[in-house]
Every structure is written in C-alpha cells, then in structure tokens.
Amino acid sequence: METRIRRVKTRHIILAVMCLMYFISYIDRVNIAVAGPLIRHEMGLTTVQLGLVFSAFAYPYAAMQIIGGWLADKFGPKLVLTVLSLIWGVATLATGFAGSVTMLVLMRFALGVGEGGAFPTATRAFTYWMPVAERGFAQGITHSFARLGGAVTPPLVLAVVATGGWRDAFILLGIASLAWTVLYLFVFTNSPEQNRRITPEETAEIGYRAGDCDRAKHAATPWRKLVRRMWLVTFVDFCYGWLLWVYLTWLPSYLRESRGFDLKQLALFTALPLLAGVVGDTLGGVVSDKLYKITGRLRFARCAVLVVGMGGSLVFLLPMVSATDPLTAVWFLSASFFFLEITNPVLWTLPLDIAGKYAGTAGGMMNTGFGVAGMISPVAFGFLIEKTGSYNVPFNISAGLLAVGIVAALFIDTGKTVEADEERERAAGAELGGMPSFLHAGAAVRLERHHLRRPLRWRK
Predict the structure, then answer these.
(1) I need a surface site. Which of 104, 272, 423, 444 has the fewest CB within 10 A?
(2) Same domain, 16 and 87
(3) How many domains does the chain have?
(4) Per residue in 374-402, pLDDT tens?
(5) 200 domain-assigned
(6) Is 89 part of a structural domain of the chain?
(7) pLDDT digits over 319-330, tens only?
(8) For the whole prediction, is pTM greater than 0.70?
(9) Where a domain ends, among 141, 158, 193?
C-alpha cells in the first residue's frame, strides 16, 4: 500500500519565509547594542556620539510605518518589501566598513528606513494569503521569530566578534539579509492567482476571490475611514510599546544596577524574559484563532486576548517592583513579558481584520504608536531614574499605562470595518442613483411631505 505524502501548503511555505525575515531583521536591528562598546573603543566615540548612533534608527523607523504600508497597498508587497530589504541589507553590510560616526549614523538611518516599512508590508502580504482563522497564528509565529532573533543576537554577534571582530558581524548579517531577498523574490507572489504552485482547493481555503489584488491597487486610500477605525488600536499599541521599549533598552541596566547581577548572570537573565516573549507571541495568536473558531465571535477572540495579556503583564509587573529577592524579580519580569507579548500578534492581526485590503496602511498606523513610544519611553524612563534615583517610579508609570491600555482595548470593535463603511456608502449611492446630481450632496436628507393636522394661519 502506497503511503501518500502530505503536500506542504503554499501559504505555509510563504509563512516560513516571512518568519525568517522577522528573525534576520531583528538581529540586524539590535546587533549595534552588542557591538556598541567595541565600536566606541575603536573609534574613540563619546557617550553622546554613541547615543546618536543608537537613536538614528528610531526616527525613520517611526516615519516609515504609514509610508511603507501605503506603498505596499498601492504597489504590492512583493516589490515594496524587496526594495526595503535591499535597503536594510546594504545598510547592515556597509556598517561593517564605516570609518566615522557620520557613516555609522547614516547607515543606522538607512536601516530605519528599510525596516520601518517592513512589518506593515509583511502584514499586507498576509491579506490575500492567510484566512481569517489563521491570521492570529501567522502574526504570532512571525513576531515570536523576531523575539527569538533578539534573544540570540548577543551570543551570535559575540561569537563572530571573538573570531573576526565587530565589522565581520555586520558584513555577515548584511549578506544574510540580501540572501533572504533573493529567496523572497523566488517564493512570494502578491496573490494566490499569481502563484503556480497553489491548488484551487487551497485558494478556496484562503477565501481569495480572483481579481481582488488588482482591484485593491486601484482603490483610493480612505484615509479618514482608516484613522476613524484604527486610532484606538494605535493608542493601545502605544501603551503596549511603552513597556516593550523599556524591556528592550533598560532591562540589562536594571538587572545590573538595581538587582546586582554580574556580567555572567546578566547574559542569562536578560535572555529569559525575551525567551518568555517568544512563547507568548506564538501562544497569543494561537489562542485568539482558537477562540474565533469555537465562538465565531471575532471581536471577543481579539479583545479577550488583549485584555488578558495586558492584564497579566500588569499583575506580575507590580510585585516585581517590590520584590526583595533578585531572582524572584527576574521570574516576575519574565512572566510580565510573557503576558505582554501575548497581545502582540492580536495587535498586528487587527489591521487585517479591520482594514482588509488597506492592511498595509492600517498596520503602519497601528505601529506608529509603537514607534512614538520608542522615541519617548527610553528617554522618559532614563530621566525618571536620574531624578528619583530609583527604577520603581518609571516602572509604576509603565504599569499605569498598561491599565489605561486595558480599558481602551475593551472598546475596539472588529465589526466596524473599513470595508463595511465602503459598502454602506455604495448602498447609499445606489439608492440615490435616480436623483439629480445637485441633490447627491444632501444624501443624508430624506425628502418627505409632512402632513399637518391643521393649516398654518397668518398672524396679524
């Protein structure tokens, strides 16, 4: 009896390629933090100059969120993500040849441009490749690979540095990024109908209708509708991003200065929360999709995970601040980060649920909240530490923002979509089809004759 080999679905191959992109791009993003002390020593940089190199990434990253997503909506994610990955790959590679602080700042700026539009573009890429019931998992697994990239960067970069120096680390990572671009070009297509490998059965599973991709390119971007439907999601992402940036920037300093860990312990205990985040990212997407399949209620499936994730993070963050035992504090931190990352895949799934074919632009709007948090949170956190001499106050403020985010998440409604707004406008336009054009502006006014019980009388 012949054993039938199960065919790997095309959308799962594409998902694997996107996971690799998130993994590589995150290593390219945070490798400068690991190599920073060596770069400073070799080039004789001041603390201010090194800080300028670090911050050069954040501003174009925030600015490119909406721009990159909009370009993906208009020109397709294949072209846009190819260009963006070339930009950040070349920037990473060129950093290995930098000979001045100006060159370092320019390359970090270019990296911010390339990576800033990458995640919204990747979200747009899932619009026609992932069915609604698998979107949470897709966003969860890709972002868990991003967190995994952050966790393995220190040992990976330090291993290369030990054998060839910090420049070799950037050169090798730049080559890896460019190699991924070639793989993406061969595997990805903007829609299932452009892919030769996909079967009609899988296309039906995805729910793709022929011509959807081309129609989306010619549709005008409904900016006002997108802002109206996405601003609350952006605000929740800001509350989430505030604490995430604290973890990404201040965690090593906190563990060393406030909890007294030495350098060897620091490497392990810094990685633990990030690894907990890897699990949280994957689990959040899986649970949200499972809730949707069981209940059929999309809003409940998304909002419940947001509330539980941010609530759980808050519950473990508060006792961490007051914990006296350093190891106990690390476990509380890891649990807090685990729950925080449960929310991440849901936040990235909401642009797909709410904006549909405009998911690139909507994803950029949403992640702008994260970008703005990245510009404010690390600086504000450092300022408060300097003024108070303690980490407790800034952590308590972060906890307060989580509480506000929980309340805001309760009001997110996936049923109020941009597509539904457009359908209502088309229906209203059809009803007015027979009216003269000068009356179309008053579409909301119904022309009716009101019958009075008695005639009006003139008064003297």
Answers:
(1) 444
(2) yes
(3) 2
(4) 778 777 877 788 788 888 888 888 899 99
(5) no
(6) yes
(7) 988 888 888 888
(8) yes
(9) 193
